[in-house]
Amino acid sequence: xxxxxxxxxxxxxxxxxxxxxxxxxxxxxxxxxxxxxxxxxxxxxxxxxxxxxxxxxxxxxxxxxxxxxxxxxxxxxxxxxxxxxxxxxxxxxxxxxxxxxxxxxxxxxxxxxxxxxxxxxxxxxxxxxx
Length: 130
Description:
This protein is mainly α.
């Protein structure tokens, strides 16, 4: 295991921009060591970055990610963090399931509107491709 990673190494590994890493640093989510103008990321920063990106993929906000990370560092610790993640995942799942229902309803409405238009065009003797 390496002691330090450069910003270039992490951007390549995680396919993110240097701007993204600087944003997470500005938000206090990661804290690289500074050697002059060079940022050196520890293994713990790399692990945090992995958690941050996973949280983003799951649809969590930066505030939610910060809260989860902070739980790991302070009481209630990892068990509290895991409970919070489970709760947030459940909330996110419910939101997405509702969006899926909304999309399904909208698709039915679009099908009905299209069918009504095609029916009326047939009554008028008009071709749909004109």
